[in-house]
């Protein structure tokens, strides 16, 4: 149910006067405005002396192969390329065919020369999501390192550009795309620091250039070294290209013999030497194929000759199936076919697990997800994973609670099913059920489950991409799971993806259960909620109406679900400014709730509160107070005087007194709300800080400017700590402080604080946002007031011409 906490802007009359001064043109100025020197932490009695650190102890989350052999000439050439580009930012692209060993080459270089760098970081750039995850892991490393020097996480957050984002344990959550970008930008700024000149950053597996715009992730500076591994030759343009080609014959033989734990080449009998030479030639000197072949020979105790016959048989099989990719592609696929058939015979569950993983993301395949989603005993799952590891078809992650699969193995696992369409659909469905079962056991109210959902989001994205390839998901009896994934995406702010799954679920429910089944109607309601969150109010009303029509028919007009839909339609009308219609629909919800639930039920009281909000928005203050009073009496009786819902009503009543100009009464009620918020929620809770901000607004309107600045300062310190320096609520407080300085005639300070507001709003909201445009207008007015007409004219270029 909808409940809104009201907050006020200081000196509304003056703000209205300022907003009268607009004219218009278009975009322009970029760096004329002064900005704040940074966040002011007023909550601390001591200032930490910790400074940014750039010497980060060496630690890689990617394991280097113990069987790396030869290729010294490539390592030496790579080292030479790095040295030649040291006078500026050096971007080196290791490109070549899949399976050539680009990743292992980069890892070997790092392990030989990591001492030359102050920090080394590795990011999996296979997709946009894995790249963002990599940046969050870099930030976690930076936080951990600084915490070893000083455990003041508030100060560490400010140093690393994460002010207000870290909790008392130094942890942070990323819940929205804008917050993902916030972390990426903070990490890039750390790399770009002028004192931080000698770092190495690797972007591995950058093959999907449609998904990943690498320029958005490379730090903007003239120092540091970037190494990119990719199959894409075109990435070398404008950078230092470095092609990784096939291994030399003797190196390839050494790798094969090492992988299968056989004696050195010179210690083999002549026939085995000849066979080994033939095998590496057949495998195209590909390191990945040689590693797979060696692992199979070792596990199966085959002789070299017997393996060569098995390989040639499977290569012929692949050719007969019309598999493309040239000799190199077929050679490496043939090695996997041999291993796969052996696994099918000895551990069918392991073979099936590999195929299922082909529909997940190839990185960070969480054992917890598999435990939740697979119908296997824990020991059987562990045996299956161990089997894949033993055949080199999977690699254990450094944290030991997940594993990864090489991108080519991952592609092959799915590709081999294309000749068996029904089996492909069956495996895809099992992968879907693994993901759904994994997140179905999450409780959206628990932080640890939300974090787990976030971790497995890469696999949810992968299954979403794969299932979209099938013509009719609705024919696959997956409606419950589809709605569950829609719920996960909606919880994490991924509204477009949420709509896709809800549409699939709706089609399946309609087909299987009918248009008026409660599950169908709940899905229609969910779609309306997404449209509402997107600001598409007409579409939201359309889908709420569809849900409501069915609910009235199937459940009755007074069913709680029906009344919730009625209430939410009223919310949309309120957002649209259709206040009379909002009151009509709230009245309808209220009549039903009083009848079905009682006058003092929390849902009933929420509707009473929301009706008061509408009267407040209309300027009908006496009516608003009457309805707030009715809500408050019920809330105090049912919920208690310090319940958060009760305190929201107290705060909003104070807002009505403020709007009426009854400032002493407003302060009295804000004081009551504040005492309750601090007791129930704590001094830094966002709801508490809204009340603090509102009290400052009252002092400002009373002309008590110093007191207003004191209370705005308190609100600002709390919001910077809890919400961050660029959160819209934080910026509103900054803007209000600018208004106070303006009222005091401290125009330079007002310009400084307006400038800080504008910088944050442009970053977070964009130049086109109404709030940003309002700040520009305030700055124009102030510049004109102080005779700075040229600056005012430049700012006018950033306003938009009203459409006629």
From TrEMBL:
<dbReference type="InterPro" id="IPR027417">
    <property type="entry name" value="P-loop_NTPase"/>
</dbReference>
<dbReference type="Pfam" id="PF13424">
    <property type="entry name" value="TPR_12"/>
</dbReference>
<dbReference type="InterPro" id="IPR029498">
    <property type="entry name" value="HeLo_dom"/>
</dbReference>
<dbReference type="InterPro" id="IPR056681">
    <property type="entry name" value="DUF7779"/>
</dbReference>
<feature type="domain" description="Prion-inhibition and propagation HeLo">
    <location>
        <begin position="2"/>
        <end position="52"/>
    </location>
</feature>
<dbReference type="InterPro" id="IPR038305">
    <property type="entry name" value="HeLo_sf"/>
</dbReference>
<dbReference type="Pfam" id="PF14479">
    <property type="entry name" value="HeLo"/>
</dbReference>
<dbReference type="GO" id="GO:0005874">
    <property type="term" value="C:microtubule"/>
</dbReference>
<dbReference type="GO" id="GO:0005871">
    <property type="term" value="C:kinesin complex"/>
</dbReference>
<dbReference type="GO" id="GO:0043531">
    <property type="term" value="F:ADP binding"/>
</dbReference>
<dbReference type="InterPro" id="IPR002151">
    <property type="entry name" value="Kinesin_light"/>
</dbReference>
<dbReference type="GO" id="GO:0019894">
    <property type="term" value="F:kinesin binding"/>
</dbReference>
<keyword id="KW-0206">Cytoskeleton</keyword>
<dbReference type="InterPro" id="IPR041664">
    <property type="entry name" value="AAA_16"/>
</dbReference>
<dbReference type="InterPro" id="IPR011990">
    <property type="entry name" value="TPR-like_helical_dom_sf"/>
</dbReference>
<feature type="domain" description="DUF7779">
    <location>
        <begin position="342"/>
        <end position="420"/>
    </location>
</feature>
<dbReference type="InterPro" id="IPR019734">
    <property type="entry name" value="TPR_rpt"/>
</dbReference>
<dbReference type="Pfam" id="PF25000">
    <property type="entry name" value="DUF7779"/>
</dbReference>
<keyword id="KW-0802">TPR repeat</keyword>
<feature type="repeat" description="TPR">
    <location>
        <begin position="563"/>
        <end position="596"/>
    </location>
</feature>
<keyword id="KW-0493">Microtubule</keyword>
<dbReference type="GO" id="GO:0007018">
    <property type="term" value="P:microtubule-based movement"/>
</dbReference>
<protein>
    <submittedName>
        <fullName>TPR-like protein</fullName>
    </submittedName>
</protein>
<keyword id="KW-0677">Repeat</keyword>
<dbReference type="Pfam" id="PF13191">
    <property type="entry name" value="AAA_16"/>
</dbReference>
<keyword id="KW-0963">Cytoplasm</keyword>
<dbReference type="GO" id="GO:0005737">
    <property type="term" value="C:cytoplasm"/>
</dbReference>
<keyword id="KW-0505">Motor protein</keyword>
<feature type="repeat" description="TPR">
    <location>
        <begin position="521"/>
        <end position="554"/>
    </location>
</feature>
<comment type="similarity">
    <text>Belongs to the kinesin light chain family.</text>
</comment>
<dbReference type="Pfam" id="PF13374">
    <property type="entry name" value="TPR_10"/>
</dbReference>
<keyword id="KW-0175">Coiled coil</keyword>
<feature type="domain" description="Orc1-like AAA ATPase">
    <location>
        <begin position="67"/>
        <end position="213"/>
    </location>
</feature>
């Amino acid at each position: 149910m909808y409940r809104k906490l009201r907050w006020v802007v200081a000196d509304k009359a003056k703000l209205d006067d300022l907003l009268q001064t607009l004219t218009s043109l278009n975009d322009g100025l970029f760096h004329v405005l002064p900005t704040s020197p940074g966040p002011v932490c007023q909550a601390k009695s001591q200032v930490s002396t910790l400074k940014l650190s750039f010497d980060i102890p060496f630690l890689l989350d990617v394991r280097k192969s113990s069987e790396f052999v030869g290729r010294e000439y490539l390592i030496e050439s790579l080292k030479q390329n790095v040295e030649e580009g040291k006078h500026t930012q050096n971007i080196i692209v290791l490109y070549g065919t899949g399976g050539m060993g680009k990743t292992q080459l980069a890892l070997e270089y790092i392990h030989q020369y990591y001492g030359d760098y102050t920090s080394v970081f590795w990011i999996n750039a296979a997709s946009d999501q894995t790249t963002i995850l990599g940046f969050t892991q870099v930030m976690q490393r930076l936080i951990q390192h600084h915490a070893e020097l000083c455990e003041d996480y508030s100060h560490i957050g400010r140093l690393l550009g994460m002010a207000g984002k870290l909790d008392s344990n130094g942890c942070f959550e990323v819940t929205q795309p804008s917050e993902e970008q916030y972390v990426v930008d903070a990490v890039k700024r750390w790399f770009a620091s002028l004192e931080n000149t000698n770092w190495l950053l690797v972007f591995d597996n950058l093959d999907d250039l449609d998904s990943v715009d690498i320029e958005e992730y490379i730090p903007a500076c003239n120092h540091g070294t970037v190494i990119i591994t990719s199959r894409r030759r075109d990435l070398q343009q404008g950078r230092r290209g470095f092609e990784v080609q096939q291994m030399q014959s003797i190196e390839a033989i050494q790798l094969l013999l090492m992988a299968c734990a056989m004696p050195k080449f010179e210690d083999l009998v002549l026939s085995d030497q000849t066979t080994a030479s033939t095998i590496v030639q057949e495998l195209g000197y590909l390191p990945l194929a040689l590693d797979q072949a060696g692992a199979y020979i070792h596990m199966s105790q085959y002789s070299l000759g017997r393996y060569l016959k098995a390989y040639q048989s499977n290569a012929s099989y692949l050719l007969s199936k019309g598999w493309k990719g040239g000799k190199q592609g077929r050679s490496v696929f043939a090695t996997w076919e041999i291993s796969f058939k052996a696994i099918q015979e000895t551990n069918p569950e392991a073979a099936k697990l590999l195929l299922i993983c082909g529909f997940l993301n190839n990185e960070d395949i969480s054992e917890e997800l598999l435990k939740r989603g697979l119908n296997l005993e824990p020991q059987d799952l562990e045996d299956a994973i161990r089997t894949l590891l033993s055949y080199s078809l999977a690699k254990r992650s450094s944290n030991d609670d997940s594993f990864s699969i090489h991108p080519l193995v991952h592609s092959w696992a799915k590709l081999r099913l294309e000749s068996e369409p029904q089996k492909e659909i069956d495996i895809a469905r099992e992968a879907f059920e693994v993901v759904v079962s994994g997140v179905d056991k999450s409780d959206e109210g628990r932080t640890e489950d939300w974090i787990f959902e976030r971790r497995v989001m890469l696999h949810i994205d992968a299954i979403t991409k794969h299932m979209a390839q099938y013509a009719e998901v609705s024919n696959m009896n997956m409606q419950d799971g589809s709605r569950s994934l829609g719920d996960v995406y909606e919880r994490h702010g991924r509204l477009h993806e949420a709509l896709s799954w809800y549409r699939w679920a709706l089609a399946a429910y309609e087909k299987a259960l009918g248009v008026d089944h409660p599950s169908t109607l709940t899905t229609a309601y969910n779609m309306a909620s997404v449209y509402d969150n997107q600001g598409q109010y007409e579409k939201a009303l359309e889908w709420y109406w569809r849900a409501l029509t069915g609910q009235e028919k199937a459940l009755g007009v007074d069913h709680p679900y029906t009344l919730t839909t009625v209430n939410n339609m009223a919310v949309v009308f309120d957002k649209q400014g259709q206040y009379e219609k909002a009151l009509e629909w709230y009245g309808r919800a209220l009549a039903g709730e009083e009848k079905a639930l009682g006058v003092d039920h929390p849902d009933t009281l929420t509707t009473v509160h929301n009706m008061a909000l509408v009267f407040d928005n209309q300027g009908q203050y006496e009516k608003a107070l009457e309805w707030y009073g009715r809500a408050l009496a019920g809330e105090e009786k049912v919920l208690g005087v310090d319940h958060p819902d009760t305190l929201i009503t107290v705060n909003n009543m104070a807002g009505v007194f403020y709007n009426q100009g009854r400032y002493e009464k407003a302060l009295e009620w804000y004081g009551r709300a504040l005492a309750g918020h601090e007791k129930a929620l704590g001094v830094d809770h966002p709801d508490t800080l809204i009340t603090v901000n509102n009290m400052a607004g009252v002092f400002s309107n009373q002309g008590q400017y110093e007191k207003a600045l004191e209370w705005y300062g308190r609100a600002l310190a709390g919001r910077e700590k809890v919400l961050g320096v660029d959160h819209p609520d934080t910026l509103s407080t900054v803007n209000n402080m600018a208004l106070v300085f303006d009222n005091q005639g401290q125009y330079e300070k007002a310009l400084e604080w307006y400038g800080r507001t504008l910088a944050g709003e442009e970053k977070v909201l964009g130049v086109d946002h109404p709030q940003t445009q309002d700040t520009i207008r305030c700055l124009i007015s102030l510049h004109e007031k102080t005779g700075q007409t040229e600056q005012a004219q430049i700012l006018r270029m950033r306003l938009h011409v009203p459409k006629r």
